[in-house]
UniProtKB/TrEMBL annotation, chain B:
Transmembrane segments: none annotated. CDD domains: ABC_MalK_N. Gene3D superfamilies: 2.40.50.100, Nucleic acid-binding proteins (2.40.50.140), P-loop containing nucleotide triphosphate hydrolases (3.40.50.300). Residues 9-239 form the ABC transporter domain. This is sn-glycerol-3-phosphate ABC transporter ATP-binding protein UgpC. Its main location: membrane. Belongs to the ABC transporter superfamily. It is found in: Cell inner membrane.
């Protein structure tokens, strides 16, 4: 690349009085001090984050005798998938011995409705706040933002009482409601800022064309806001999937989400500590957010930039 | 001003306040059926705000708005019988041109064949038939604005509202589309209200221009009247490029009256005073447009002449603007492009005070 740039620049300088002077594109050197420093730093940072993952993966593929040798960085001598199978289907937590699979499906049953419900409500909230400047909209918005800064722990006990009173304590739907409410401030902010950054004239044109509140939302705004919906889905899926606190407080052992079950497996005090099973279980639990990131990373960055910069 | 018998749009005592800030102040405006009216003014003068109030996109604080004799003050935009064209085109990006045009009709629940008929007509008028299946992102600025006009056209409305529709286009396209809008008006004979800050658009398109400043209509009249007999100094300075020359001085009493400033006395016997004749010695501003100033031999025949010297020459292609001094102040005039003048050349300039404007310094009003 850089060789080509240099050779291209040579003939174009010929006709001028100062033929030997700089001309054309500036040549770039791959091994300049700047590049070495830049990429060196990046590589060190990448290794720092990748090393623990590496240890987890190799450990999960080893048998217990091999782990006891203590060489945590060495690759497995004999690859075994036994720990993964055990973590998924036979590891014991309390009385249940059906592994993480039960928690996985619980988490799915919690995450999917929570994500859909919270995004559906928050996007309409954001749209209303951005485009239909109703009386008291600013006050409402400030209250919502303040909500984003209140520590969750403060509200745990009152919510326990509320859920108990309406008869949803310990059920999955109770947890879905809790997740939807706690996602509201940040998601509404996200959507409001995104819709605010859209040209106001578009909204006015739609009003002149006769579309109403829902007509404009569904037919004009929704089709234009894919990036911000992807951002919201990622934020909510990772947030709700990784949640431990609400899961352990608002559900019962047979409806525990995956994270709570993982904790119970890893922190069980009886018997031998099976490091390989623990590692496999941890990777399995983290797999869902990881997959979401890999699939939609590019859209995520675009949406964050679009929604967060303005407003 | 003559009363308009059956106004297409009638704005009666309309005010708009944001808290203590008054954007429109007790505004009255009657627009005749089929009239092309231009709201002209600098940014922040309330012209776009007034248009949005007529469209129903902004609620007014006081007053009433009638369209086609119907009180629409509380009506939704869609029920007012208006079509609107925006500066940024405001096309729905995810829809094709055809869907953009038909959106309002589909929302209104019109039958399919009626929608198709109206789109075909609009596409034919605006010559956008080949673009119907494209997305707005695949169109040029001029094409986009044509589609935006088409979206107003298919609605089959009485009144068209244009909010600076040409401001986002380059100079060449702007003049092309300006002509097209004028042709469109001639063909449709609809009432059109057009907001712009561009005086050339205003002069070329309007039947009447309303010059606005600070939420108040300063002058509402035919373009030529506004240009030649501005009612105050703001209107005089806002219209015309290059701008009118202003000279500060006093009114001199006498049989004929004269305007005096440092060593210069301009006779006003040919000047047509408004109602207010002013009083002797009152400070006032004398204004004359650069193209109404003669020079050289032609200047000798003028009622007022003066000797001066060329300071700066600005060739503009079709003609040349020459800067000199009169009464110690910068003074510009227009000459044909062929005249070759150089800095320092002595010249004779002259003009007919009948073509000038005289304003009261204090109030700014025309005398």
């Amino acid at each position: 690349m850089s060789d080509q740039a240099v050779s291209l620049s040579a003939p174009s300088g010929a006709g001028h009085a100062d033929a030997s002077g700089p001309s054309g594109p500036k040549p770039r050197h791959i091994f300049s001090r700047r590049n070495i420093f830049l990429y060196g730093t990046l590589i060190v940072a990448a290794l720092y984050y990748l090393l623990p993952l590496y240890v987890m993966i190799v450990t999960s593929l080893k048998g217990m005798p091999e782990i006891r040798l203590g060489n945590i960085f060495s690759p497995p001598l004999e690859i075994t998938f036994e720990p993964w199978v055990k973590a998924w289907s036979t590891a014991c937590t309390g009385l249940n011995c059906d592994g993480l699979s039960r928690g996985f499906w619980n988490s799915v049953r919690i995450t999917v409705p929570s994500v859909i419900l919270s995004i559906a409500i928050a996007s309409v909230n954001g749209y209303a706040l951005a485009n239909w400047r109703f009386k008291g909209a600013d006050t409402f918005f400030i209250i919502l933002i303040v909500g984003a800064f209140i520590p969750y722990q403060v509200m745990i006990y009152p919510i326990v009482i509320i859920l108990r009173e309406i008869g949803l304590y310990g059920s999955l739907s109770g947890l879905v409601i809790v997740h939807s409410i706690f996602g509201m401030p940040i998601l509404t902010l996200l959507f409001r800022n995104y819709f605010t950054s859209m040209p106001e004239e578009l909204f006015r044109a739609a009003r002149v064309d006769g579309a109403g509140f829902w007509g404009i939302y569904l037919r004009i705004m929704l089709p234009m806001s894919l990036p911000i919906f992807v951002v919201a889905v990622i934020l909510q899926v990772t947030g709700i999937w990784n949640d431990f606190l609400f899961g352990v407080v608002y559900t019962r052992p047979d409806t525990y989400p995956m994270t709570v079950q993982l904790n119970n497996i890893v922190n069980s005090v009886q018997g031998v500590k099976e490091y390989n099973v623990n590692m496999a279980a941890t990777i399995l639990t983290g797999l869902v957010p990881l997959v979401i990131y890999f699939i939609s990373g590019r859209l995520f960055v675009r949406g964050i930039a679009a929604g967060a910069v303005k407003g | 001003m003559a009363e308009i018998a059956n106004p297409s749009v009638s704005i009666q005592n309309v005010s708009l306040n944001y808290g203590a800030v008054s954007v429109l102040q007790t505004l009255n405006l009657d627009i005749a059926d089929g009239e092309f009216i231009v709201l002209l003014g600098p940014s922040g003068c309330g012209k776009s705000t007034l248009l949005n109030c007529i469209a129903g996109l902004l609620d007014i604080s006081k007053g009433r708005i009638f369209i086609k004799g119907k009180n629409v003050t509380w009506e939704e935009p869609k029920d007012r019988g208006i079509g609107m064209v925006f500066q940024s085109y405001a096309l729905y990006p995810q829809m094709t041109v055809e869907k953009n045009l038909s959106f309002g009709l589909r929302v209104a629940g019109l039958p399919k064949d009626e929608i198709a008929k109206r789109i075909a007509r609009a596409a034919e008028i605006l010559q956008i038939e080949p673009l119907l299946q494209r997305k707005p992102s695949a169109l040029s600025g001029g094409q986009r604005q044509r589609v935006a006009i088409g979206r107003a056209l298919v609605r089959d409305v009485d009144v068209f509202l244009f909010d600076e529709p040409l401001s986002n286009l380059d100079a060449k396209l702007r003049s092309e589309l300006r002509v097209e809008i004028k042709l469109l008006h001639r063909r449709l004979q609809n009432t059109m209200i057009y907001v712009t800050h561009d005086q050339i658009e205003a002069m070329t398109l309007a039947d009447r221009i309303a010059v606005m400043k600070g939420g108040v209509i300063q002058q509402l009249d035919a373009p030529q009247t506004i240009y030649n007999r501005p009612v105050n100094r703001f209107v005089a300075g806002f219209l015309g490029s290059p701008a009118m020359n202003f000279i500060e001085g006093q009114l001199q009493a006498g049989d004929v009256g004269a305007f005096t400033t440092d060593g210069v006395s301009i006779p006003l016997d040919r000047y047509e005073f408004d109602k207010d004749r002013g009083s002797a010695g009152m400070p006032c501003v004398f204004g004359i447009r650069p193209e109404h100033v003669a020079f050289g031999d032609a200047a000798k025949a003028m009622p007022f002449t003066a000797e001066s010297a060329v300071e700066i020459v600005e060739p503009m292609g079709s003609d040349t603007l020459v800067w000199t001094k009169l009464g110690g102040r910068n003074f510009s005039f227009r000459v044909e492009a062929e005249k070759t003048l150089r800095t320092g050349d002595p010249i004779r300039i002259g003009f007919d005070p009948a073509r000038a404007s005289l304003f009261d310094t204090q109030s700014g009003n025309r005398l």
